[in-house]
């Protein structure tokens, strides 16, 4: 049974049902959307538990010719690197839809439709093993996201949406040229050429060309992550997007970039990756520190959370380019963790915004007294985001720092100071919003969490503690693939240039 | 001299179209003004029959009519594309023509004659034939541009198009004269032989020929007529013209450069690469600030001419197939976009301002969805025909070593996303204007459904169409 194809296209099937429903029945629209995403979640859980942890190669593979004459195939599969991201997507999407149920009431049909199409595109991005198929899904993500930001966003939504799409398209345009060039190098005759990721991974590409192709791919991914200094689209997109859009954007969309590092950049261009790893690591560290400092200075709570993503994803990038097994595994785990904790933070901001319609820190204060159920939840999410031991964030950050220390202690030391920064600005945010005298103007509106809103956080908190205490189900499944990847890349290391402390 | 029967059999599609055009014209003379509706059915029927015979007819690489005409795989694919364009254009325009009280019989006859011109251009194997096709294509388009006789804008558009078009044709003709002087023949065969050791005369002839074709295809720097003519001509004419002229012109580009002048590829590919890059930049940048949807689509058609030219620059069989695929994709997405505008009116006039689209998606969600689809496809985003079309031309260009052209191509595509998505976005935001109403009919709806299906099928299940257009490559081998 082609499980992965069903997984990818089930949201589209739900979208077709949504099209047929009367637009006035908003509950039915949300219900169908939620049911569709929950069904996808159930199916992905089946894949997760039936996944063989000892195998490094792709599993549940399905492959048929798509455009045979151009060497393009419909080729999907899941391995230890894509499995965590597939799970992250399927967990976050129902939560994002649920968060919108209470707050987005107009044009619901189109909203649910966009979210469902977005889920298909995201799952396709993470599960494709053919470069053209990957590119198709990668670009297809932009259109629903463009409308989610542009139609249901804040006052400057039009500007933010077009900035988001132009920025990311500009990056991926050159990636298309690189993909085609790689294809043309894979064989002399059209019949021998391929877009197959696995076969292209074994293809030797001569050095100046490899560096150019690396650059084109790296640019596309670095914009998506975003790696400093390419992050300027992110605060605008996040601040203007509706809560559900911010959640998906932060939790899943940004991971497309870091996933791209591991899935495409490292295996396709190993020599160039080794050569440019220091550059990307330094940019990542600058991002960690810069993101942390800028977050600290934000008066706007949503912008604060958005900028904290630049910092946290800098750490993920650093781990990916440390090229040791623990660091890459930590990087992968931290992608999931960031999805959970930052997704949670955006949900909290959304809950507050629904009540006060303000994002300014100055307008809050003493919320804990008014919303006693939200306060502990927010504390847990904040602590997870700043990586307190016992929460999910600690495991990921620890692995990244450990793995980075093995190759370059200085990087690890600098990155650790970013961890301290995140504690500063996150606790400061918590303090200003939740504690102190009540500074909210309209107290009557600050009702505590509704039952629907509680259900947003219960799964996230369960995941925070589950991964924090017992991460091995995830780590065990990713280990074989990560080990194979790291070995493949480091085998290209020439003894002269290698750096071993 | 009577041509042998076998020759007549090879031009059955052309004969069908010519006969239908004449029947429609004559019918228009005899049927009273209010009862000309059957002529639309007649025109559509003739087009369907011609399409069927084009697809059913085999292909042979040996020229007929004393070396004037060839029905090879290139002819077959491009004629099929032209006929699809005609069919969609007929469905789109029918209601408008009736609503505006234009002459139905004449309108459809002219549309068919223009199609005949494009078909002959695709099938030519001689410069005289190519010229004949070009004129058969152009003259009805001049008339169609001025077809709303009482509207001064339309008159101006027709005159402008005619004068500049005649100018371009003169260049073309002069080029033929020089080439005849250099080779002593007008056949493509002779051209191909001389191309191995070209004289100065020969080069000058090729250059003038290029100018003539560039006029028709609206390629920079010969594009200045396009925005004005597109804006002034009646909407259905603009839609039809933007597609059929491209099919004809690029059929000629493929015939002349890729087939006849293959030996000179090293020289013309550089020149065409420069023109192509220039066209992509000018078209896409100029489109950014347009407020009229007709002018926007005019610059969009210029930009797409640049993208299509990228396939010609490649000079390879893959490039020729990419051109054919692009023309088909372009037909669906451009006619679709025009079709959406044709569904609207502003107090009985054309709703040709982008602002007229404001908020309409909430009054007609399907129309908004269709427009989004066409705009996404025109911007070259997956999973649509526009993406694969660009993917094919850029692959061909990169394979031919034209990396610079491909890089400019993808980057200008990003620029194009800005103005295309703005159109789609406008449909979903703001309050719709009271002045704008819907003027749809069954035929336009059918055309929009067909165009949407075409954009999606070419984007998601392209393997059959790709295999079909790949026959084109055989001509180059």
TrEMBL record, chain B:
<comment type="similarity">
    <text>Belongs to the complex I subunit 2 family.</text>
</comment>
<feature type="domain" description="NADH:quinone oxidoreductase/Mrp antiporter transmembrane">
    <location>
        <begin position="124"/>
        <end position="415"/>
    </location>
</feature>
<dbReference type="GO" id="GO:0008137">
    <property type="term" value="F:NADH dehydrogenase (ubiquinone) activity"/>
</dbReference>
<feature type="transmembrane region" description="Helical">
    <location>
        <begin position="128"/>
        <end position="149"/>
    </location>
</feature>
<dbReference type="GO" id="GO:0050136">
    <property type="term" value="F:NADH dehydrogenase (quinone) (non-electrogenic) activity"/>
</dbReference>
<feature type="transmembrane region" description="Helical">
    <location>
        <begin position="442"/>
        <end position="461"/>
    </location>
</feature>
<feature type="transmembrane region" description="Helical">
    <location>
        <begin position="271"/>
        <end position="289"/>
    </location>
</feature>
<feature type="transmembrane region" description="Helical">
    <location>
        <begin position="364"/>
        <end position="381"/>
    </location>
</feature>
<feature type="transmembrane region" description="Helical">
    <location>
        <begin position="243"/>
        <end position="265"/>
    </location>
</feature>
<dbReference type="InterPro" id="IPR010096">
    <property type="entry name" value="NADH-Q_OxRdtase_suN/2"/>
</dbReference>
<feature type="transmembrane region" description="Helical">
    <location>
        <begin position="41"/>
        <end position="61"/>
    </location>
</feature>
<feature type="transmembrane region" description="Helical">
    <location>
        <begin position="104"/>
        <end position="122"/>
    </location>
</feature>
<dbReference type="InterPro" id="IPR001750">
    <property type="entry name" value="ND/Mrp_TM"/>
</dbReference>
<keyword id="KW-1278">Translocase</keyword>
<keyword id="KW-0830">Ubiquinone</keyword>
<feature type="transmembrane region" description="Helical">
    <location>
        <begin position="401"/>
        <end position="421"/>
    </location>
</feature>
<comment type="subunit">
    <text>NDH-1 is composed of 14 different subunits. Subunits NuoA, H, J, K, L, M, N constitute the membrane sector of the complex.</text>
</comment>
<keyword id="KW-0812">Transmembrane</keyword>
<dbReference type="Pfam" id="PF00361">
    <property type="entry name" value="Proton_antipo_M"/>
</dbReference>
<feature type="transmembrane region" description="Helical">
    <location>
        <begin position="296"/>
        <end position="317"/>
    </location>
</feature>
<dbReference type="GO" id="GO:0042773">
    <property type="term" value="P:ATP synthesis coupled electron transport"/>
</dbReference>
<protein>
    <recommendedName>
        <fullName>NADH-quinone oxidoreductase subunit N</fullName>
        <ecNumber>7.1.1.-</ecNumber>
    </recommendedName>
</protein>
<feature type="transmembrane region" description="Helical">
    <location>
        <begin position="161"/>
        <end position="181"/>
    </location>
</feature>
<keyword id="KW-0874">Quinone</keyword>
<keyword id="KW-1133">Transmembrane helix</keyword>
<keyword id="KW-0472">Membrane</keyword>
<comment type="function">
    <text>NDH-1 shuttles electrons from NADH, via FMN and iron-sulfur (Fe-S) centers, to quinones in the respiratory chain. The immediate electron acceptor for the enzyme in this species is believed to be ubiquinone. Couples the redox reaction to proton translocation (for every two electrons transferred, four hydrogen ions are translocated across the cytoplasmic membrane), and thus conserves the redox energy in a proton gradient.</text>
</comment>
<keyword id="KW-0813">Transport</keyword>
<dbReference type="GO" id="GO:0012505">
    <property type="term" value="C:endomembrane system"/>
</dbReference>
<feature type="transmembrane region" description="Helical">
    <location>
        <begin position="15"/>
        <end position="34"/>
    </location>
</feature>
<feature type="transmembrane region" description="Helical">
    <location>
        <begin position="73"/>
        <end position="92"/>
    </location>
</feature>
<keyword id="KW-0520">NAD</keyword>
<feature type="transmembrane region" description="Helical">
    <location>
        <begin position="323"/>
        <end position="344"/>
    </location>
</feature>
<dbReference type="GO" id="GO:0048038">
    <property type="term" value="F:quinone binding"/>
</dbReference>
<keyword id="KW-1003">Cell membrane</keyword>
<feature type="transmembrane region" description="Helical">
    <location>
        <begin position="201"/>
        <end position="222"/>
    </location>
</feature>
<dbReference type="GO" id="GO:0005886">
    <property type="term" value="C:plasma membrane"/>
</dbReference>
């Amino acid at each position: 049974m082609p499980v992965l194809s069903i997984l990818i296209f089930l949201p589209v099937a739900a979208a077709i049902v949504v099209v047929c429903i009367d637009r006035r029945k908003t509950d039915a629209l949300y219900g169908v959307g939620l049911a569709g995403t929950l069904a996808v979640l159930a199916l992905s859980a089946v894949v997760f538990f039936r996944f063989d942890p000892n195998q490094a190669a792709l599993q549940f593979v399905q492959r048929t010719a798509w455009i045979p004459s151009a060497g393009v195939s419909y080729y999907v599969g899941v391995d230890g690197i894509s499995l965590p991201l597939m799970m992250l997507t399927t967990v976050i999407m129902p939560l994002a839809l649920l968060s919108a149920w209470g707050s987005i009431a107009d044009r619901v049909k189109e909203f649910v439709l966009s979210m469902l199409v977005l889920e298909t595109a995201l799952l396709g991005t993470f599960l494709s093993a053919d470069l053209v198929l990957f590119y198709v899904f990668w670009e297809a993500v932009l259109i629903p996201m463009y409308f989610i930001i542009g139609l249901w966003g804040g006052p400057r939504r039009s500007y933010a949406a077009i900035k988001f799409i132009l920025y990311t398209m500009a990056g991926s345009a050159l990636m298309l040229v690189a993909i085609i060039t790689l294809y043309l190098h894979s064989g002399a005759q059209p019949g021998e050429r391929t877009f197959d990721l696995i076969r292209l991974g074994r293809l030797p590409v001569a050095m100046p060309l490899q560096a150019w192709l690396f650059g084109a791919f790296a640019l596309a991914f670095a914009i998506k992550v975003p790696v400093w200094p390419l992050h300027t689209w992110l605060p605008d997109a996040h601040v203007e997007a509706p809560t559900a859009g911010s959640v998906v954007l932060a939790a899943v969309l940004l991971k497309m970039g870091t996933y791209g590092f591991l899935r495409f950049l490292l295996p396709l261009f190993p020599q160039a990756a080794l050569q440019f790893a220091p550059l990307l690591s330094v940019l990542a560290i600058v991002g960690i520190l810069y993101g942390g400092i800028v977050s600290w200075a934000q008066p706007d709570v949503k912008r604060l959370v958005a900028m904290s993503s630049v910092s946290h994803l800098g750490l993920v990038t650093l781990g990916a380019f440390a090229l040791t097994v623990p660091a890459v595994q930590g990087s992968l785990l931290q992608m999931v963790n960031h999805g959970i904790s930052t997704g949670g933070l955006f949900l909290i901001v959304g809950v507050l915004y629904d009540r006060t319609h303000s994002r300014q820190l100055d307008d809050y204060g003493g919320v804990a007294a008014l919303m006693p159920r939200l306060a502990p939840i927010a504390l847990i999410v904040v602590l997870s985001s700043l990586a307190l031991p016992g929460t999910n964030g600690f495991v990921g950050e620890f692995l990244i720092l450990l793995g980075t220390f093995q190759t370059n202690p200085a990087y690890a030391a600098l990155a650790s100071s970013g961890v301290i920064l995140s504690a500063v600005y996150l606790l400061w945010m918590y303090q200003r919003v939740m504690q102190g005298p009540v500074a909210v103007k309209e107290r009557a509106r600050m009702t505590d969490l509704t039952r629907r809103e509680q259900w947003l956080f219960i799964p996230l908190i369960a995941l925070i503690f589950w991964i924090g205490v017992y991460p091995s189900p995830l780590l065990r499944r990713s280990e074989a693939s990560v080990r194979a990847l790291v070995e493949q890349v480091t085998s290209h290391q020439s003894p002269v240039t290698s750096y071993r402390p | 001299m009577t041509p042998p029967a076998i020759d007549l059999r090879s031009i059955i599609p052309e004969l069908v179209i010519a006969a239908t055009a004449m029947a429609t014209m004559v019918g228009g003379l005899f049927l009273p003004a209010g009862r000309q509706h059957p002529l639309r059915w007649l025109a559509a029927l003739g087009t369907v029959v011609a399409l069927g015979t084009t697809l059913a007819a085999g292909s042979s690489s040996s020229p007929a009519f004393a070396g004037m005409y060839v029905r090879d795989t290139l002819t077959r694919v491009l004629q099929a594309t032209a006929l699809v364009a005609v069919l969609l254009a007929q469905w789109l325009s029918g209601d408008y023509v009736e609503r505006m009280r234009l002459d139905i019989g004449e309108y459809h006859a002219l549309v068919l004659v223009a199609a005949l011109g494009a078909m002959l251009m695709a099938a030519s194997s001689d410069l005289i034939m190519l010229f004949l096709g070009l004129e058969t294509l152009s003259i009805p388009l001049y008339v169609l541009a001025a077809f709303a006789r009482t509207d001064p804008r339309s008159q101006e558009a027709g005159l402008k198009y005619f004068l500049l078009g005649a100018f371009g044709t003169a260049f073309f003709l002069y080029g033929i004269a020089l080439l005849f002087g250099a080779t002593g023949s007008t056949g493509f065969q002779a051209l191909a032989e001389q191309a191995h050791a070209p004289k100065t005369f020969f080069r000058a002839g090729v250059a003038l020929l290029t100018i003539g074709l560039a006029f028709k295809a609206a390629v920079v720097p010969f594009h200045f007529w396009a925005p004005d003519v597109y804006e002034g001509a009646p909407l259905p004419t603009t839609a039809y013209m933007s597609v059929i002229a491209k099919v004809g012109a690029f059929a000629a580009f493929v015939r002349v450069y890729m087939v006849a002048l293959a030996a000179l590829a090293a020289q013309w590919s550089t020149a065409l690469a420069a023109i192509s890059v220039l066209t992509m930049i000018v078209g896409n940048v100029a489109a950014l600030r347009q407020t009229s949807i007709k002018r926007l689509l005019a610059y969009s058609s210029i930009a797409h001419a640049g993208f299509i030219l990228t396939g010609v620059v490649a000079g390879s069989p893959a490039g020729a197939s990419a051109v054919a695929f692009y023309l088909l994709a372009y037909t669906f997405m451009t006619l679709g976009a025009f079709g959406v505008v044709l569904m609207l009116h502003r107090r009985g006039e054309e709703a040709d301002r982008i602002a007229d689209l404001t908020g309409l998606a909430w009054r007609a969600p399907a129309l908004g969805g269709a427009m989004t689809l066409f705009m996404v496809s025109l911007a070259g985003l997956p999973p649509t025909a526009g993406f694969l079309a660009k993917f094919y031309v850029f692959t061909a260009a990169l394979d031919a070593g034209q990396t610079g052209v491909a890089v400019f191509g993808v980057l200008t595509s990003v620029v194009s996303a800005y103005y295309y998505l703005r159109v789609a976005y406008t449909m979903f935001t703001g309050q719709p204007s009271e002045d704008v109403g819907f003027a749809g009919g069954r035929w336009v709806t059918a055309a929009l459904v067909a165009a949407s299906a075409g954009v999606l099928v070419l984007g998601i299940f392209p393997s059959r169409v790709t295999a079909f257009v790949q026959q084109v490559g055989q001509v180059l081998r």
